[in-house]
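Session log. Operator J.P. requested a structure for one protein chain; no other inputs attached. Running the standard single-chain path with token output.
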Amino acid sequence: MEQETPLEPVTLVISKVVKPNKNDAYEIWAKGINKVIKRFDGFIGVDVIRPRDHSHNEYVVIIRFENIDALNKWQTSAICRSWLSNAQDLIETQSKYQKSDDLEFWFTLPDQNVNLATQQNPPYYKKVVVGILSVYPLIMLSNIFIAPYTTELPYLLRVLVSVIVISSLMSYPMIPWISKLLGFWLYPKTKV
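Structure written below.
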């Protein structure tokens, strides 16, 4: 008897560089496609990271679905293809899609020209090291800068405040920054 493996949530990360002077049109397009995708079966959420440096109009879109089947249905749907074709005149370059079913979206590939289909994910122990290097300084900073202002709160609420701040900063910018800094170690070049 064949046992089916449960389908896990999947995250899709898309990097798009918008053409100069097309930001307003792209923002309108993004709001429209985000309204459409929210009604699609299996959709969990979408986050858009807007450019901080206006000389490089790179948007990063993080889309989450309940499972790979739901994501595939969205990507192959006529409505998705239609919306994507409408954006072609707005986009200068777009990275390849990165599909993941765990915390891989935290780990930034060191080279945007890497073939995501063949790039190996870092081993578990390397992810643990990156996690420790991200969490430890945030805990120390939390103890210095947040703890003095929360002493009057009940213990569980103090811990909750720290966890919220640390988790927020860990997701961005700490883990992506440390992953980029340690890219040579996380994604060593293979010798041909």
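Operator note: Residues 1-6, 108-118 have pLDDT under 50 and may be disordered.
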